[in-house]
Design a protein that fits this description.
With about 270 residues, the chain is of the alpha/beta class. Helices cover about 30% and strands about 20% of the residues.
């Protein structure tokens, strides 16, 4: 099955380098990569252009002007640009396990979206990886904060409870997420009223569930490692949580300001 890989990024070219390097090592490659760029400077374009020469698949770089945290808008435009019926979505500050894409595709089922987990890497180990331009990270590596999330075992994954059919606040991790494009389009995509860091992925996941698309939690497969960084401003988080709560409590399916509200982006 063909799939599109969407990578969300903002002004961290060094991390994006490791991310793309790990994509290059996949057992199964996507049919295309779309970089959803929320206003990075020119260094990010340089990294993407370098990796275009290494991949045999198309890489689209969608860029919007840096006007604060507007990730929902650029993600909606990336979803619009996706040519595949199935989309895998990650962030540009993660390193993915070699079978990450293969396991998302193999786990895809009609009527479900997939929520994976992430393993956090501490500050010291992140610095070493970036300095050495290395993606050499595994369950046995030093500096893993929640190590069990990096334990890769397909057999154990079968026995993990996976299905969630009612929306809750334990929603989606946008750096490890996959879905059918038609399911997200049906709910009008990401909510563009969520401005600033926080809750945009979980709010989307809640509306998917409200529309009858169940959540499948993957454990012990589709592993990813999250590079340490300082947090974005969380001044909007409380307001965004109110939007999430309203979506859950009122069983909202479609947001008013989302995928159907087209925004101009540059295609590099």
């Amino acid at each position: 099955m063909q799939c599109t890989l969407i990578i969300a990024t903002y002004n961290w070219a060094e991390a994006l380098t490791l991310c793309l390097k790990s994509v290059l090592m996949q057992t199964v490659l996507p049919s295309e990569i779309i970089i959803a760029d929320d206003g990075s400077r020119f260094k990010t374009k340089t990294v993407i252009d370098a990796y275009r020469k290494l991949f045999t698949l198309p890489i689209k770089h969608l860029w919007q002007k840096d006007d604060g945290f507007r990730k929902t808008i650029i993600l909606n435009e990336a979803i619009r640009a996706a040519n595949s019926e199935y989309i895998i979505q990650i962030d540009g500050d993660i390193i993915i396990h070699p079978s990450f894409i293969q396991e998302h595709v193999e786990s895809a089922r009609p009527g479900f979206y997939i929520r994976g987990s992430r393993t956090l890497i501490n500050k010291e180990t992140t610095a070493i990886l970036l300095q050495n331009n290395s993606i050499d990270i595994s369950f046995f590596s030093a500096g893993l904060v929640n190590r069990m999330n990096s334990f890769h075992n397909g057999f154990l994954s079968v026995f993990h409870k996976t299905i969630v059919k009612s929306s809750n606040k334990n929603g989606v991790i946008g750096c490890n997420f996959s879905y059918w494009k038609k399911d997200v389009v049906a709910i009008n995509g990401y909510n563009n009223d969520i401005i600033g860091w926080g809750q945009e992925d979980s709010e989307l996941g809640a509306r998917l569930i409200n529309n009858g698309i169940a959540k499948r939690n993957l454990k012990y497969k589709a592993i990813c490692f999250h590079l340490f960084h300082s947090y974005f401003s969380r001044e909007r988080d409380a307001l965004n949580k109110q939007l999430l709560d309203k979506t859950i409590d009122d069983k909202i399916i479609q947001c008013a300001n989302g995928y159907n509200n087209i925004h101009p982006v540059d295609n590099f």
